[in-house]
Amino acid sequence: MAELLIVRHGQASFGAANYDELSDLGRQQSRALGETLRALDWVPDRMVTGSLMRQTQTLAEMGFDGVVEEQAGWNEYDFHDLLNSRYGGTALVDVITDRKTHFRALKETLAEWQLGGIPSARETWQGFCDRIEQARLAAIRPGAERVLVVSSGGAIARLVANSLQLSNDQMIALNLQIKNSSTSRYVFSGDKFFLHEFNSVPHFHNLERAALMTYS
To answer: Are 33 and 148 in contact (CB under 8 A)?
Structure first.
């Protein structure tokens, strides 16, 4: 069967003026993953990213040659928009800059969004789900045996939750535990699509690289 390897981008620049850019650590994570995949003789014959900078930079740092498809369907939900919308237009500073406050507020916001709340948000929950499914179908179309996708935690969690028929609250739990630059592997053939591995970090499985692991 063919394989889809979906990668969460490397660490972005949390709290910086431009969050949507890899930190130095995120670049190291991405290079380590690319080196490990090549050492395992896993080279993609189709490469896809969302249109976010942290996604395209991750794939570039991984160092594979070839044509890259950009599919905005793999983009993360716009958490800044969701948080600002939930808080009446502008989120409190701590909600954006303090990690503990941010992720507590994000968890609550996602739960409300999934139930049809936050009507002023630019994207509905159902719209998010639909675009992830369309991106999946485009990525696994015939013509490739090893598909590499670089996406984000929310999109990956939605894909996993949908494929395993998990509840929305389980999707949120998955979202918050996905490691930067981790891989989740699917095997597929025709209408068969099975999760084979989730949130794996083989590139950190040694003492030298263990310190590179992050969740946000």
So the answer is: no
Domains belonging to the chain, first-starting first, are: 2-75+146-212 (3.40.50.1240)
Compute φ and ψ for 141, nearest 5 degrees: -60, 160
β-pair partners for 188: 2, 193
Distance CA 73, CA 214 (A): 25
100 pLDDT band (50/70/90 cuts)? confident
Interatomic CA distance for residues 62 and 65, integer angstroms = 9
Q: Provide CB contacts within 8 A for 168, sequence distance 6+.
A: 111, 114, 161
- pTM for this one? 0.94
How far apart are the C-alpha atoms of 194 and 28, rounded to whole Å?
30
* Per-residue DSSP letter, 141: S
Q: Which of 216, 161, 150 is nearest to 12 (CA)?
A: 216
Distances (CA, A) of 144 to 43, 53, 131, 167, 202: 11, 25, 21, 31, 24
To the nearest 10°, report the CA torsion of 162, 61, 39, 72.
Answer: 20
> Residues in the chain, how many?
216
